[in-house]
Structures are given as structure tokens and as C-alpha cells.
From TrEMBL:
InterPro entries: Bact_response_regulator, CheY-like_superfamily, Sig_transdc_resp-reg_receiver
Domain of life: Bacteria
Residues bearing PTM 4-aspartylphosphate: 78
Response regulatory domain location: 29-142
PROSITE patterns: RESPONSE_REGULATORY
Protein name, UniProt field: Response regulator
């Protein structure tokens, strides 16, 4: 149960701006199930600054292997994974006894928060996941009641900036998938994955193109123009990242 003692200036702050310094997640193991290298690097840095240990799975199959061998305290699941829907993994984890103490969903589409909570998630992290205070407080507020009480204080709202090499890896992956995209499954994956990458890297033009691809794909429209535009944008971003 979290307790709070605040000074007068602190009382006007939102609750998520209050957290335990300097490493409030020490002793916790976090499993992040995320296929984006850029997004998972952001979570790794957030865990590192918070004192938590982290393991990563890049798909449902890999997550299942991890969960057979150890029990993390926190599982963070991206809702769009290459081999299935992260929402199903959340539902499965929620149903298992003993339950993982904290299950969080993560997505570049904030509209999926309700779906994730209905599946059994304790909370939702919208991409980009960058705020250290928000990351810590999202976990601390849903830890089981038996967790020892802590005293909270204001934490500077540090923002995490992951290394751009992860973005390069993600864009290279998209380019490879695009080169062989022939069926609807590949197109759907490209649209979802790239929208998340674009949101995490603050690239509205790329996100808009990925959203248009998803919309046209859902409507059954011709995709050649969308795919050509996506391919051009991805190559442009790759050349920019290479120059950094």
C-alpha cells in the first residue's frame, strides 16, 4: 500500500509525479514482450534507472519460453506482436494461478487501453514510454497490497531517450518485411509495427503513412501506393539514422 507525505507545493501535483527515489523498483524482475528494439531499449533504460532487472522477449513464443523457466514480478506486453495478439497473452497470464503480480499492456494506439484492461491488464503504457516518473508510478500503484509501504516524494520528470541504433534495427526489419510483403498478414504486421515505431520516435509523417496503410488494408483498397510510400519513407529514415 503506498503512503504519501507531501509538502504544500507537492499537494498540487498529480499523483503520478510522486514516487520513491532513487531506485524504487529494486529487487523486481520485469519481462518486456516487445518486438521493437527501439521501444524495448526505452523500457530497458527505465528499468535500469529504477533498479529493476529486465528480460526481453520479442514474440509470444519467446515469452512463453521465458515464463516456463522463471516468474517475473512485472510483465509488460506490447499488444501488436509478430506471431499474434498480445491481448491473448495478457488474458492467459491473468488466468494463471499464482498470477503474475503486475501485468501491463503497451501500445502506440491509446484506443486499445480499454481492450487491454478487459483482458486482465493492471494498467496501460501508451507509446512512447519515456517518462521515468510515469513508468515507476504505473508499476508502484498496482503492486499487490502486501508490498511494504513506502514514502513518496517528488521526482524530476526525467525523459528517457533510447539509442538510435534500436530505431535503425527496427527500420531495417521493416524494409526486409516490405521487400517480401505479398499477403495480408504481412501488410497488417507492417502497419501495426511501423505505427508503433513512428510514435516512439516522434515521427508523425511516418505514423500517418502507417495509419493510412492500416486503414486501406482494413477497407480492402489497393495497397500498392501505400506500400510504395511506406517503403520510400522507411528508406529516407534509414539514411537519416545512418548519418547520426
Amino acid at each position: 500500500m503506498l503512503t504519501q507525505t507531501a509538502t504544500e507545493p507537492e499537494k498540487s501535483l498529480p499523483h503520478w509525479r510522486l514516487t520513491l527515489p532513487p531506485r524504487p523498483l529494486s529487487g523486481l524482475t520485469v519481462l518486456v514482450v516487445e518486438d521493437s528494439r527501439f521501444a524495448s531499449e526505452a523500457v530497458r533504460l527505465l528499468c535500469l534507472k529504477s533498479g529493476a532487472r529486465i528480460r526481453r522477449a520479442d514474440c509470444l513464443r519467446s515469452a512463453t519460453r521465458h515464463l516456463r523457466t522463471y516468474r517475473p514480478a512485472v510483465v509488460i506486453v506490447d499488444l501488436g506482436l509478430p506471431d499474434g495478439d498480445g491481448g491473448q497473452l495478457i488474458a492467459d497470464l491473468h488466468a494463471v494461478e499464482p498470477r503474475v503480480p503486475v501485468i501491463l499492456a503497451m501500445s502506440g494506439d491509446p484506443d486499445r487501453a480499454r481492450e487491454a484492461l478487459a483482458a486482465g491488464a493492471d494498467g496501460f503504457l501508451p507509446k512512447p514510454v519515456e517518462s521515468l516518473a510515469l513508468f515507476q508510478q504505473t508499476i508502484l500503484t498496482v503492486l499487490p497490497p502486501e508490498t511494504a509501504a513506502v514514502v513518496l516524494r517528488v521526482l524530476p520528470d526525467d525523459v528517457i531517450r533510447p539509442d538510435r541504433s534500436g530505431l535503425r534495427d527496427d527500420l531495417t526489419h521493416v524494409a526486409e518485411v516490405l521487400s517480401g510483403a505479398r499477403d495480408t498478414t504481412a501488410v497488417d504486421y507492417i502497419a501495426r509495427f511501423l505505427a508503433g515505431v513512428a510514435r516512439s520516435s516522434h515521427d508523425p509523417a511516418l505514423e500517418a503513412a502507417a495509419t493510412a496503410l492500416a486503414r486501406d488494408h482494413l477497407a480492402g483498397h489497393a495497397l500498392a501506393t501505400d506500400l510504395a510510400r511506406i517503403s520510400s519513407l522507411v528508406q529516407d529514415r534509414l539514411s537519416r539514422v545512418a548519418e547520426i
